[in-house]
Amino acid sequence: MNLILLGPPGAGKGTQAARMIEKYKIPQISTGDIFRKNIKEGTELGKKAQEYMNKGELVPDDLVIEIATTRLLEDDCKNGFLLDGFPRTVYQAEKLDEFLAKHGKKIDKVLDIAVEKEELMTRLIGRRVCRSCGATYHIVNMPPKKEGVCDSCGGELYQRADDNKETVENRIDVYNSQTKPLVDYYEKAGNIAHIDGAIGLENVFAHIVSVLGA
Ligand code: AP5
Ligand code: MG
Ligand code: ZN
């Protein structure tokens, strides 16, 4: 199963991906996570990406396409993959389709998760992430048992550098102007499913499973 999770910042892409990779035994490929790992390790790629990410702007297409397609060539993607946050422009989507066609593959389903702006802001500003295992929490909606500490691994919880009000607002604007046109792109391809992302974690997951099949 070759899947894409589409949706604005805070829609719950990462949250649902964590459940989907367990159920469907496919790897999650989050370009945002790859960039954050590179920033943490201080690589050249990380330095380049950080400039854009901290402002809530998109990292340039060619850089992202290179990273994503290289990752898709790895062995664990043979039987399927879950793209989280890629593609994010029509150009990226076209390049992805070209790449997949060259390898005799295609996208089976695009899951477009929708949540309104006010809720996105609340979710992102209250999000906390585990430094060690990447588990995601929310200070109100999904608090850890002990404040600042990850339930699953005991790691320290932190707030992403781009999860402040100003940057979040820009990320949502950037989504609306540059990424939303992808809905039409996949509508034309006929493989998009629309998911209401505001109905609670488990209900969203149940809807995704009903679209993909058990
Ligand atoms: P990326 O890391 O992908 O960030 P994003 O798209 O802004 O999305 P988020 O990760 O913020 O949100 P999410 O949908 O995963 O939500 P989550 O599940 O965590 O990208 C970061 C940056 O990298 C970009 O801004 C860009 O600069 C760069 N980049 C990455 N890919 C790129 C590309 N292809 N091209 C160019 N640049 C790229 O949930 C959020 C919160 O809500 C959590 O606290 C969670 O607990 C809570 N929550 C989740 N679901 C629910 C629910 N149903 N009900 C209540 N609360 C919920
Ligand atoms: Mg995410
Ligand atoms: Zn953890």
Tally of alpha and pi helices: 9
Count of all domains = 1
How many E-type strands?
A: 8
Order of helices and strands: EHEHHHEHEHEEEHHEH
Overall spatial form: globular
Order of strands, main sheet, comes to 2-3-1-4-8
CATH architecture: 3-Layer(aba) Sandwich
- Oligomeric state of this protein: single chain
**Poorly predicted runs of 5 or more residues:** none
Distance between the termini: 12 Å
Q: Indicate the CATH class.
A: Alpha Beta
What fold name goes in the CATH topology slot? Rossmann fold
What is the makeup of the main sheet?
5 strands, parallel
Mean pLDDT: 97
Cα Rg: 17 Å
- Name the bound molecules: BIS(adenosine)-5'-pentaphosphate, magnesium ion, zinc ion
Range of strand content? 5-15%
Helix content: 40-55%
SSE-based structural type: alpha/beta
CATH superfamily membership:
P-loop containing nucleotide triphosphate hydrolases
Account of the protein in words:
There is one protein chain. The chain is α/β, with parallel strands linked by helices and 214 residues long. The chain has a single domain, classed as P-loop containing nucleotide triphosphate hydrolases (Rossmann fold). It contains nine helices and eight strands. The strands form two sheets. The protein has a five-stranded parallel sheet with strand order 2-3-1-4-8, with helices on both faces. It has a three-stranded antiparallel sheet with strand order 6-5-7. The mean pLDDT is 97. It binds BIS(adenosine)-5'-pentaphosphate, magnesium ion and zinc ion. Zinc ion is lined by residues 130, 132-133, 135, 150, 152-153, 155.
